[in-house]
Amino acid sequence: MAIAGSVLSVVGLVxxxxxxxxxxxxxxxxxxxxxxxxxxxxxxxxxxDCFDSGTGSLQGDAYDVDEVPCTGAHHGEVxxxxxxxxxxxxxxxxxxxxxxxxxxxxxxxxxxxxxxxxDTVDVYYLVPSKESWTFGDREITCxxxxxxxxxxxxxxxxxxxxxxxxxxxxxxxxxxxxxRVLFEEPEDYAEDDLPANRRWAGDVGTALGxxxxxxxxxxxxxxxGKAVADLASDLEAARKEWAKAAAAKDVEAxxxxxxxxxxxxxxxxxxxxxxxxxxxxxVPSYDKDYDGGAGDWxxxxxxx
Length: 304
Known about the structure:
There is one protein chain. This protein is of the alpha+beta class. The protein has helices at 25-36, 92-110, 130-134, 166-182, 194-217, 225-246, 251-262, 268-277; strands at residues 7-10, 16-17, 50-53, 65-68, 73-74, 76-83, 121-127, 139-146, 153-154, 302-303. A six-stranded antiparallel sheet has the order 1-7-8-6-3-4, with helices on one face. α5 (194-217) packs antiparallel against α6 (225-246), α6 packs antiparallel against α7 and α6 runs antiparallel to α8. The chain is globular.
């Protein structure tokens, strides 16, 4: 959205593209030129900015956006901007693939506490089109938005070193390191590829050990020390279960220790430690299913 004519998509299902139909070519080209020159267009959004789309939603035709305060209702919040290398236009598919990889990876830097991000929020991104690339557009803009096109966001989702204290940041860095490993679970089930799952279980065990060590090594504020220590003990117990899963001789043994290890993840001691540190305490749903939301956004492209 840093440049007019950028393209927006949600998890690869929805694209905002430039409409060059008769009667709007001149306006579109002028928009590209103004934005490329950085002449104060509404598309010149930066990290931390919130905006409303020109149509009142993230669907339909839109040729403009309005920057608005994050404290009120808004359609999107920019959490990162990625600059693509110069050269010829790499193609819509390539640009979208880069946006998908970069934006999902960068969301954690802006919203460190995933528990504080509502389940109804997902990652969107705006990428250069072939036309805007001609006028110098090289930016991918990563955006948080509501998966329900009829609803907006209210308040900023930012929670990083600018909004959190040092103890909260330290705790979240440790927790996020573990989450990144957990999210790398093999696509094939253990019954289909036991070696790959065993290797991953070993990685999880290593990450759990590192998290427990990091929590124990830090001096925590009064009132939270015991809660964090209890969590570290549970993480160590979980590590042992995952180590056994990594050494399992068969699928049945693997799942026995897999299930036992997962019982400690995001459990009661995690919630208690988070509460003591003033962090979000509602365990997020990692199994989103948005009937009527993003799943319905495959009817076609959105023109801007």
